[in-house]
Design brief:
By secondary structure, this protein is an alpha/beta fold. It has twelve helices and five strands. The protein has two domains: about 120 residues; about 130 residues, Rossmann fold (3-Layer(aba) Sandwich), CATH 3.40.50. This is CD-NTase-associated protein 12/Pycsar effector protein TIR domain-containing protein.
């Protein structure tokens, strides 16, 4: 079906299609959302228009492309008639999509489009908060005894830097040959969770060492859920964190206002990471002394 989209919303629609929004639009979750917020009739009209325009009958499966076309129709109609309704439907759709998708899909481009279209700031923040809350939901195994996450008074170790990152063959050399080396050169003691050996539950030790650290380094490469969980603990304590990644798309849009080092996994990239990391830590030291 050819849809004569308003040129202003074409970039937004393109990015909605890139995230495969149709897989959510065809669910009962979205149907319930349309009923709850009283745009079910509009949604049914969009789906009927798509069906009526097609000469193909699908038996045995339900193509998500039809739902995407129907959604484009209602967005286009709302944008031309009522900007408020247009933004309301998008806010509702995206916040519930994030819940349904468990925050797995990067929506940064979609949010950029909405900002360009002048979506009200409170609605932008609503989408970002929905995304952030899903990212910081613990996905690691729950210990038998839940740790007590309290901001209790604890003495900061001025030489401790806790490093948050996955433990795998891809990133272990980054830790051993670069991060550790830089920290030791600057007279800091690096510590990663797999280097902690006590009889207590590991999450208790992670929480304790995050609290004790002067600052932290977090490598978000590959969007490891445990890394995001530990990063959430650090942010809850308002700790200084230096963010690293091999791919900027691994950084959620609600964290991109932090200073980030994007590095390449290569010989030249290693040298650049060492020098940039030293600069960031030195700058952090200078700021702390002021």
């Amino acid at each position: 079906m050819e849809i004569n989209l308003d040129p202003q919303i074409k970039p937004l629609v393109a990015n909605l299609l890139r995230i495969n929004i149709g897989r959510y639009l065809k669910t009962s979750d979205f149907n319930h959302l349309t009923l709850e917020h009283n745009f079910d009739n509009l949604w049914e009209q969009g789906k009927k228009a798509v069906r009526d325009s097609s000469n193909v009958v699908f038996i045995g499966f339900d193509p998500s492309g039809d739902y995407e076309e129907a959604y484009q129709l209602i967005l286009n109609a709302l944008y031309k008639q009522d900007n408020k309704g247009f933004f309301n439907v998008l806010e509702l759709t995206l916040t519930d999509f994030i819940r349904w998708d468990k925050g797995k899909t990067d929506l940064s481009k979609v949010v950029e489009n909405l900002e360009q279209l002048k979506m009200p700031e409170d609605q932008i923040q609503s989408i970002k908060q929905a995304f952030s809350s899903k990212l910081l939901t613990p996905t690691i195994a729950t210990p038998d005894k839940s740790p007590t996450f309290e901001k209790s008074e604890i003495k900061i170790d001025p030489k401790l830097c806790f490093v948050i990152m996955p433990f795998n063959d891809k990133l272990n050399p980054i830790y051993e040959s670069i991060i550790k080396v830089v920290l030791k050169d600057l007279k800091y003691n690096p510590l990663r969770a797999d280097e902690i050996f006590t009889s207590k539950p590991i999450i208790d030790d992670i929480w304790l060492n995050i609290k004790k650290s002067k600052f932290l380094i977090a490598d978000l490469t590959d969007r490891n859920p445990n890394v995001f969980y530990e990063l959430g603990l650090a942010h809850a304590l308002t700790k200084d964190v230096i963010l690293l990644t091999q791919n900027l798309s691994d950084i959620p849009f609600d964290l991109r206002h932090y200073r980030i080092i994007v590095y390449q996994d290569s010989i030249s990239g290693a040298d650049k990471l060492k020098s940039t990391l030293k600069e960031f830590i030195t700058e952090l030291d200078t700021k702390k002394k002021k």
